[in-house]
# Entry
Amino acid sequence: MLYQRSSRLFAEAEQVIPGGVNSPVRAFKAVGGTPVFIKEAKGAYLYDEDGNKLIDYINSWGPMILGHAYEPVVNAVIERAKKGTSFGTPTALETEIAALAVSMVPNIDKIRFVNSGTEACMSAVRLARGYTSREKIIKFAGCYHGHSDSFLIQAGSGAVTFGTPNSPGVTQGTAKDTLLAQYNNLENVKALFAANPDEIAAIIIEPVAGNMGCIPPAEGFLEGLREVCTANGALLIFDEVMTGFRLAKGGAQELFNIKADIVTFGKVIGGGLPVGAFAASGKIMDYLAPSGPVYQAGTLSGNPLAMAAGLEMLKALNSDTKIFERLEEKTAYLEKGIHKILLEEEVSHTINRVGSMISVHFDKKPVTDFATAGNGNNDTFKKFFHGLLDNGVYIAPSAYETWFITDALTYEDLDYTLNAIKKVAGTL
Ligand SMILES: *Cc1c(COP(=O)(O)O)cnc(C)c1O
# Structure
């Protein structure tokens, strides 16, 4: 495949945008080469500036769960735009999407909309700190909760891909309030609570980690966190920016039957527009301004275009009773196919999968936390990535990323992908 136009566009972008991109992992730094510039997309396919057609396994890093340019969303945005794009006043639309989200997700009474997953997680932590009058939080190495200061401590994908787990610009003062634990290690968490009695406001976790590849929670791990939080008066924050409205209608809380105290959303909830949200019981959410003392705001929060897109997306997911089953079946089909091929070609690998989140790690040891996720960050992955790209299959350009399966994928697309993988696996 040719990427001439993309190369030229990237060179032009580098002149006026740092690194040529508005979010680092897009830059292909981890795999080498030039990022592909996309011109348009429909369903499961991306079309780049050089005229290449790519089957998309990133799907805008999650949101396009029903495929690109999904018509109900596109039409809703067009119709809304004609009526004005922002008012800075309440709208009926905000209540409509809030009520729908609250009805779909367990254990939440109220939800506030923001403009990104970062904002949602940052605000959730402030709310937890305000509610508990405590300052420290626990996060897990390799989990990503957006780029706000408190979270840029071993933060997974984007951050680790570039070997800068701790970003300059994050102060020591901020870093000292973020305690780091290992994913799937409950003893580690208990030790932190023992060492910091009555100081920990919350644990924030990706209930299925998705920013160090896909890592499922070990049996009993999330239950253990729930118990430890309750026993110590800390809140459990599920960062469901990736898992929300993807693993089930009610996200990981529903899938694992665990009650979090605060839940954050992003990605799917915006239908491809910039949306994040955080939600909890009425008691906790009423701590927020203007009903309570914890301040949080946004000029464009609840923006009508974003809300119209999100509402259509949630309606579609809410009314299609088989959607999550189909996603599960398609992703399981892919998993089985890839495993068979890599075995036949004698390529060392581990595949992790939960529902429609899947990652292939080129190392045969189990991948259960940040340290083991690093085993698969190797030249085999880079060859695999570029081989697939040259064969029209677009996976995330980092060994630390999850693939996101969209319902727009047909079994023909999946077979095409498996064929491409077979071709590439022979060269690894
Ligand atoms: C993507 C992501 C975020 C950040 O969301 P943005 O919209 O990129 O700010 C936070 N948490 C998780 C789990 C994510 O996957």
Observations:
- The chain has two domains: 4-69+322-425, 71-319.
- Confidence is low (pLDDT under 50) at residues 161-165.
